[in-house]
Amino acid sequence: MRASGTVAGALAWSAVSLVIGPQTPPPGRLPTFPAEAALVHLDAVVVDGQGRQVTGLRAVDFEIEANGKKRSAAGSVYVPLVPSSRLSPQATLAEARLSEGEARRVIAFVLANPIVSFDSASMSGSSGAPATMRTARQVSDLLETFLEREWSSRDLVAILRSGEKSGPANQFTGDPELLRRAVQEMRDKSASLEITVRSLGPGTLDWSELVRENLRIVSDLDELVGRLARVQGRKLVVVCSRVIRLQGSMPGGEFNRVEQAIARLIRRANRAGVTLYAVQPSGLGSGFSEALEYLTEGTGGSAVSNTNDLQRGLGRILEENRGYYLLGYEASDAVSDKPQRVKIRVRRPGLQVRVRPEAFLGTSLSLPAGNVPDARALELLNTAVERK
Length: 388
What we know:
Layout: E1 39-47, E2 62-66, E3 69-71, E4 76-80, H1 93-99, E5 105-111, E6 115-118, E7 126-127, H2 129-150, E8 156-161, H3 176-188, E9 194-201, E10 204-206, H4 208-228, E11 234-240, H5 255-272, E12 274-279, H6 290-297, E13 303-304, H7 310-320, E14 323-330, E15 340-346, E16 352-355, E17 358-359, H8 374-382
Parallel strand pairs: 5-8, 5-11, 6-9, 11-12, 12-13
Antiparallel strand pairs: 1-14, 1-16, 2-3, 2-15, 4-14, 6-7, 9-10, 15-17
Helix pairs in contact: 2-3, 2-7, 4-5, 5-6
């Protein structure tokens, strides 16, 4: 429906030489692309048919198309985001060294799931408090599994409730105990906001309250993305919601406003190097959410929906983000602040590439978290959820 893609070109590192062929960066240092005039950078994830990370690829293994033109990848380096003790036995020495270096993941889990009920005239049943509380329990179960199996000591993680300001849920931290408290808080709380969908007549519902709430959720995500743009690392936002939508039987095209807001969010996330994922806890038979598919595919992520196995879905997301390829290509035709539509594939059968479909000139994706002290990184991140 709406995109997939990434990269190509000739260039140099700012602090370290671009890795081409057998060259490797010094131990513990991440390569850095300089923000030069015709340079476009991207970060890409490559997985096999089982969704497992693929490492060891070189620049010549990538085929890139940008704005309909073929480009050459000037170089590539795989950057692991997990400690070397958790790397596969096939990991190279350079990958093991990088995994002990500066790279890290910055992950925000956002629960955006108000109570939605229908009045008696709408004849649509209800998805009120019980379903919302069940969703909170499902999401907290997911996060407990994440902390037990996937959390790394270098991860900065926030467990956020859209619309709330304070408490352990709503702060980025590297402290697992604080994260467990945030998970428990999510489990104990139900949604504080209730939205009622009313009948406007036969076959027509008044979705205006839900439209307003969708716009607020997207605004919260936009604010979060803006703060994440100032912090280095592999930046992920995982949205957990049953209520974000693009369609409804209401005159006036009110849901067009939601689609337009999501389109602006996608552009900002791509500019900031943030990848959006989504989990829809409605279960098997609920169908795929067009809104979540649009939101995530537009930023190189994916949505977990229409399934009862949310653990497996989140596991796939986290497996994808155990590392990434840092790539770059030269584009003399690129214009500042205008996105390049990019596609990328690998010259090996059975491999899939996940990458943002938009790339921007001069956007640095060097991503060495060590350039920002932890205290300053946390200060920048946590202002994203301190509402005035």
